[in-house]
Request: fold
Amino acid sequence: MIKNYHRWTKFTFILGLLAILIAAGCGSGGNEDNSGNNEENTGSEGETNYGEAVEHTITGIEPGAGISVTTEKAIEEYDSLSGWEVNLSSTAAMASELDKAIKDEEPIIITGWNPHWTFAKYPDMKYLDDPKGIYGQEEVIKTIVRQGLKEEKPNAYKLVDQFKWDVKDMESIMYESQETGDDIETVANRWVEDNQDKISEWTKGVEEVDGESFELVSTPWDSERSSAFVVKAVMEKLGYDVTVTPVDVAVVFESIANGDGDASLAAWMPVTHKDFYDKYSDQFEDLGANLEGAKIGLVVPSYMDIESIEDLEPAE
Reply:
């Protein structure tokens, strides 16, 4: 009996061990299946395929904007963007999509530029390297004026010629407008009151006038509206009757060239507005940069593990 008992115990132990091994094998198979599901939108080495993640779509702004035109050129020039498209909509729609993506920590690629309030809100965003130089390097925003302005309105000419500020100035106005809900002109007026040291540099040697009219032509974007309304506020303190006219970028250059407007503070060079600038360059006067350190390009949130446009993958 004892001998049979030992045999039975040994047999039971072996059966139990086999059951454990079989269960472990089944569990391992289940884990492999789950691991396979987690590899969606990843490359062969486990890296995220951001092209698939964003459905090979760049989130853009208005059609006809300089950065929109340049992005379409980039899609033509980069093999890594072959088969991609840029979703042209509006600046507000782009910002809304960016907010949602960052809130959920999801991938997104946008047409971005400095100065813009999104960089004040999300300072860790980054530009993708642009080895082909399609977007250029550093941009400047120039002041252009109609021919004859210096002779006809010398004080206004002197003021817009002396107008200089920096990226943080412009972004602070746009960001405050977004955060408070106040319109750009209201915030620009407050900025002027709080920055009299800079204003004094712009108005040095400028005499007051009595109701002289002046028209600033601007693009409709908050960046250019910020500079236009700041200068408007300063000029009004000197007695000018100032009108800010927002128009499409092509019309900005055309109106200054034709003398329909007095000045524009919104000419992005040397890349963004090059085509428009070159078309009319002999019909206006270029007063040089009013802002340096501007930039355009493809922008992603900092949590995306990608550094260059060439790291993207073409659509199949």
Remarks:
- Residues 1-40 have pLDDT under 50 and may be disordered.
- The chain has 13 helices and nine strands.
